[in-house]
Amino acid sequence: MKNKLSAENLRISFGTKDVLKDINVSFREHEITALIGPSGCGKSTLLRSFNRMHDLSADAKITGTIKLDDTDIYGNDMHATEIRKRIGMVFQKANPFAKSIYENITYGLKINNLPHSKDIVEKALREAFLWEEVKDDLKMPATRLSGGQQQRLCIARAVALRPEVILMDEPCSALDPVSTLKIEELISSLKDRYTIVIVTHNMQQAQRIADKTIFMYLGEVKEEGPTTSLFEDPKHELTSNYINGQFG
Amino acid sequence: MASILSTDSENIMQPKNKLSSILEWGTLVGSTILVCFFLLVILWEIFSKGSSVITWEFIRSLPTEGMTKGGILTPIIGTVMLTLLTALFSIPFGVCCAIYLNEYAESNWLTRLIRASIRNLSGVPSIIYGLFGLALFVQGLQLGTSLLAAGLTLGLLSLPYIITTTEEALLRIPNSTREAALAVGATKFETIKDIVLPSSMSGILTGVVLTLSRAAGETAPILFTGAAFYINQTSVSVNQEFMALPYHLYMLSTQHQSIDEVRPIAYGTALVLVIVVFLMNLTAFYIRYTYRQHEK
């Protein structure tokens, strides 16, 4: 399978603080890649650089290239909104808009001038395993849903735009185990259609859902490989210490 | 030995703690009661002396016979028009300024200076605004003493409050909400217009209504800029002088030649003014309540 998304010689600093030092990674199409590593290792920073979320931080300095297929996403003629339409994102804490469930799905479609019929909303909600639970309450404010449902709504909101890549920043960290399993099942079901990059602190989660795992430490990629071989036979001592829970 | 010492010290501490906690509690409750007491006395004074004057006739008729008879329709209309003009001048600029400061401006010394200046402006005595309005609008811009000049002056007075309350309302919207909109491809402006503003609307509207209710009760800024002593007709025009409830009250209670004769009318005016301000505050409360319900 070909590489969908890749970073070459990526360096990111905020002010005088270097957060990412020369990152070279690639993500294959229709695979789930997990980014793991201790807090502050730069995995969220890396994730957020893929949909240009750092554009808003005035002191962020980014060098190197990030390519989606063959497009340089930081290229001069690229608009951040266009990139974000093609690369969706799901956040750590569910953040539905203070609107109805239905409008949460249609908002992204409307501002991108995409069709937003009821069928499209239904399809997105079905894809996120949420349709059966909310089909009679589409007008209800999304904030009344449970935490797990809200996060699935956020996934539905992202898939409604038919992105090519979906970035997930610890999507289950605020959820109970049952909701977490449901979302993991959902994420696994999405990989036929999307390329998924997920940041997680949960080793079991990475092993359950990821095809490939990347271990990061202090702004560098220390080790990467197929999930099973990385967890069963880590090459690097740091990796083995981290996945065995000796630091975090 | 150690345990005996600690028991001792606890015994000594106990009564002292109790006494001081009663004192602390007493001071707080005492202050609250004192404040409420004076508030009730003021309200009682106004209600008992004003309620007998207020009739439908009092509200809907013009002041007559040198304001010794008749009602207060002219000042009511004047205050309503003045408040509308104030809203027109202060809300758009105030809200836009707050959006700029909170959403766009970088956090540097200039932004901090602007913000500090705005906070300071809200502490400037209102009579200073009146003097400034006289110099700039009445004389400088040749608007004369008029409804327009007074509305602009009160608009200026209200700006710092509207900016501050709007900024606080915007600040309460977490960044994750903005990121959610950006992540589906919204531009910064779309994010603010479609997501941030609707979510903070209850806070913004509450601040706006409270600010306007404060402006409606101001006397000093309109003193030099357009409030008239006595107008014997109801037609209002922005380039004419106008009567306003607070100024009418000031005038009836201190400037009128037969003060004793007009005293009941003064109390009636005071009661109407209190009711107007109370209703505006109630509106603010209602807005916040309904939005909270909606947001749940």
Q: Could you tell me the number of beta strands of chain B?
A: 2
Biggest β-sheet: strands ordered side by side in the sheet of chain A: 6-7-8-3-9-10
Distance between the termini of chain A: 33 Å
How helix-rich are the residues of chain A, as a percent range?
Answer: 25-40%
- The CATH architecture of the domain at 3-95 and 164-243 in chain A can be named as 3-Layer(aba) Sandwich
For the largest beta-sheet of chain B, the strand count, sense and barrel status come to: 2 strands, antiparallel
pLDDT averaged over residues of chain B: 86
What percentage of the residues of chain B does DSSP assign to strands (E)? under 5%
The low-pLDDT segments of chain B are 1-9
Please give the domain count of chain B. 2
Indicate the percent of residues in helices of chain B. Answer: over 70%
Gyration radius of chain A, rounded? 18 Å
CATH architecture name of the largest domain in chain B = Orthogonal Bundle
* Outline of chain A: globular
Q: Could you describe the largest sheet of chain A, including whether it forms a barrel?
A: 6 strands, mixed
Specify the CATH class of the largest domain in chain B: Mainly Alpha
Q: Biggest interface between protein chains, with counts per chain?
A: A-B, 29 and 22 residues
The overall pLDDT average of chain A reads 90
Question: How do the strands of the widest beta sheet of chain B line up side by side?
Answer: 1-2
Which class of secondary structure composition applies to the elements of chain A? alpha/beta
Question: Which segments of chain A are poorly predicted (pLDDT under 50) over 5 or more consecutive residues?
Answer: none
Structure report:
The complex is a heterodimer of chains A (248) and B (296). Chain A has a domain at 3-95 and 164-243: Rossmann fold, CATH 3.40.50.300. Chain A is globular, with a radius of gyration of 18 Å. Chain A starts with a strand and ends in a 5-residue tail after the last helix. By secondary structure, chain A is α/β, with parallel strands linked by helices. The model of chain A has no long low-confidence stretch (mean pLDDT 90). Chain A is 35% helix and 27% strand. Chain B is globular, with a radius of gyration of 25 Å. Chain B has helices at 2-50, 56-60, 73-104, 109-121, 126-140, 147-171, 175-183, 188-216, 220-223, 245-254, 259-295, and strands spanning 63-64, 69-70. The model of chain B is unreliable at 1-9 (pLDDT under 50). Helices cover 77% and strands 1% of the residues of chain B. With 296 residues, chain B is an all-alpha fold. A two-stranded antiparallel sheet of chain B has the order 1-2. Chain B has 2 domains: 1-50; 56-295, MetI-like fold. Chain B has 11 helices and 2 strands. Chain A binds chain B through residues 51, 53, 56, 58, 80-82, 84-85, 88-89, 91, 93, 95-99, 107-108, 111-112, 141, 143-144, 154, 157-158, 161, and chain B through 106, 174, 176-177, 179-188, 190, 194-195, 198-199, 294-296.
